[in-house]
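Re: duplicated header lines in exported structure tokens

Our pipeline writes sequence and tokens for each protein into one text file. With two proteins the header for the second block appears twice in some exports. Here is an export where it did not happen, for reference. First protein block:
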Amino acid sequence: MVEGAGVSESQIELKKMNISHTLPTVRDVSKEKLEEIISTITSSVNNGVNMNNMVNIIVLLMEQVKLFKHLRGLEKKQLVIDLLCHIIDVTDAGAFDALDTVLKAMVPNIIDTFVDVEKGKLIFTTKKVKGCFACCFPSK
């Protein structure tokens, strides 16, 4: 296998065996469910977690954790953080592994931003196009 090109099958199996030892403990959420979420995410992350795919992974984790209706908002946020940190630790991003600490530090703010967008606290507006290209962009 080429350095940084992904995780070999034997590495995946070894990491799967070690998953349950480092899983976060969450009230009324089974380890099996957490393992299922992690397995789904890690199988789609061939080259580990990096700057290019981290936001997409956070969105996937938030969608999964949102289904735990019995957890409060801060508990859901902490679970997403814990799961992503776990996934960062068990996947191999090759040369990007040096960024693991930076990626982990970015996660809480990214989650907060997504929550603000979902609650309508952060609204993206578009400016009307003026000038000679206005005819190319129909007004809404």
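Second protein block, exported in the same file:
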Amino acid sequence: MLDDVVLNFLRHLAKGLADQFGPNCEIVIHDLSDNYKENSIVAIENGHVTNRKVGDGPSMAVLDALRSDPDKLQDHTSYLTKTKDGRILKSTTIYIRNEKQKIIGIFSINYDITELMMVENAIKPLISVTSKEDKVSRIPQNVTDLLNDLIDESTRQVGKPVPLMTREDKIKAIKFLKTLRHLQIHPVQLHRQRRRVRLRGCRTKASIIMQDSFLFIVYSTEFVVCRSWL
């Protein structure tokens, strides 16, 4: 039997959870002592969810607890149940044990998700995509973001991080960058991480950017990859 201290605590907890999650959240406390097996519900919040009240009989979770080996019975969380009128509930069953590990009560949570499932069904066509690709493309805000995206994509093409790449892997990554038609990528010999330079044959000053062993010279819409990265 649930003693007064435990029962009062569970009632207080049930009230708090019901207030927190609103009228769609039912909290049920079952007492599994011999005196209560036929009328196991000793406390309930938002009983309108399943149309139950204090003094009502056991549920399937209670029956499972009564006929199962308590050593093998585990808490059952986040599973679906259904009411008599067809409403869908997301349920959790927590078994309360005494000092001898005997199950003496059950703390149950039943949240009515029927309306939420209707909303999900209404929204799903709006957010679904026909593309089979799992990757979500990021929209770059500046040249640095674009460079980072290009570098990340080149390493994905190779299939291993830069520190583990062989020379052939790095060549493959650069070849991928060279396939980008809207960019001009040229090998050069430069070593300093960041500075302003004047490219040979070019009147425009450029910025050098180092990222994960890639060295880029950026000027206008042209990108230069440092060959010393290989």
